[in-house]
Specification:
Order of helices and strands: HEHHHEHEHEHEHHEHEHEH
Catalytic activity: heme b + 2 H(+) = protoporphyrin IX + Fe(2+); Fe-coproporphyrin III + 2 H(+) = coproporphyrin III + Fe(2+)
CATH topology of the largest domain: Rossmann fold
Largest sheet: 4 strands, parallel
CATH architecture of the largest domain: 3-Layer(aba) Sandwich
Enzyme class: lyase
Strand content: 5-15%
Number of helices: 12
Number of domains: 2
GO molecular function, one term: ferrochelatase activity
CATH class of the largest domain: Alpha Beta
Structural class: alpha/beta
Subcellular location: Cytoplasm
Protein name: Ferrochelatase
Length: 328
């Protein structure tokens, strides 16, 4: 392919959060340090936060988190990285004649700067950033833009940029979620209540304008409508709060306890904010929250996997790419 051909071919960069390179305390500490020191993620004064992070939190958490990663580690790396690569490979295979598709991570390898350099070295002058987060948040999607801008800080000839801010209400996304739930119900006894459990954010982020909670609510309501669920058959909640600040509610663990106390014996749980299963969904949502529900008196708890590399998610990304590159 000639240099001129590359200039006409749009480069697409799928971006996910990142993961430790190895399931070791040192690798986990390196990853968490990079992730949690981002002011977009933890918006606290650095003079207070960074000493606490590096002197207390990382030494205490890294070994424990490394053990959890060791339990789910795959031959080629962590589930998030392996699944993200599978998605990229399948999207690339479908679109190879029109786009060059890359995968980057915000806080680990392959680093956004490294991938952007590859794109520029290839002569591309059009870049589509596609963060793999259906719902926008200042703590997930915004850092993708930050990292991209930083990567180009010393570049004289900037390529054209388009960025998919979110896709929380895309019909193909809503239908893919609904179909994955239906498929789960065909294989497993349907629970009394379906929980849409999203990763939480601090309440103050939402007060400052982060649209994430509203987008989560819209996603859940649209999927529930497609499934024909009544109001008492589904609930929205948020998991993974951290620190002492109040986070958006209701909290998933507390809601599970309430449901058990109300006599609900079976629940199904899906985490629509995750495009790929990772430590959080596999360990926390699938296992920890399950144990809490059963200990509270529940009897059946089923986690419904992320869309991962299934054909509907691959087709969704292809549609998003085509839609956001129209006119290029």
């Amino acid at each position: 392919m000639s240099q001129h051909d590359n200039e006409l071919k749009c480069a697409v960069v799928l971006v996910n959060l990142g993961t430790p390179d190895e399931a070791t305390p040192n690798a986990v500490a390196k990853f968490l340090g990079r992730f949690l020191s981002d002011k977009r993620v933890v918006n606290l004064p650095k003079l207070l936060w960074l000493p606490l992070l590096y002197c207390v939190i990382l030494p205490l958490r890294s070994r424990r988190v490394a053990k959890l990663y060791q339990q789910i580690w795959l031959k080629n790396g962590s589930p998030l990285k392996v699944i993200s690569e599978q998605i990229r490979n399948k999207v690339s295979a479908k679109l190879r004649d029109k786009y060059e598709v890359h995968l980057a991570m915000t806080y680990s390898s392959p680093d956004i700067k490294e991938v952007v350099n590859q794109v520029l070295d290839g002569g591309h002058q059009k870049v589509l950033l596609l963060p793999m987060y259906p719902q926008y948040s200042v703590s997930t999607t915004a850092p993708v833009f930050d990292a991209y801008a930083k990567a180009l800080k010393n570049t004289y000839n900037l390529p054209e940029l388009r960025m998919v801010k979110d896709y929380y209400a895309e019909p193909a996304y809503i239908q893919a979620l609904a179909n994955s739930i239906k498929q789960h119900w065909e294989l497993t006894a349907r629970g009394e209540v379906l929980l849409f459990s999203f990763h939480g954010i601090p309440e103050r982020y939402a007060r400052n304008g982060d649209p994430y909670p509203q987008q989560c609510e819209d996603t859940a309501a649209k999927v529930a409508a497609v499934l024909g669920l009544k109001q008492n058959q589904w609930r929205l909640c948020y998991q993974s709060r951290f620190g002492k600040d109040p986070w958006v509610k209701p909290y998933t663990d507390q809601l599970l306890h309430q449901l058990a106390e109300q006599g609900v014996k079976s629940v199904d749980v899906i985490s629509p904010a995750f495009s790929a299963d990772c430590l959080e969904t596999i360990e926390e949502v699938s296992c920890e929250l399950r144990d809490e529900f059963l200990e509270a008196g529940g009897e059946q708890y089923h986690y419904i996997s992320a869309l991962n590399d299934n054909p509907e998610q691959v087709e969704l990304y292809c549609q998003l790419i085509e839609k956001h590159t129209q006119g290029w």
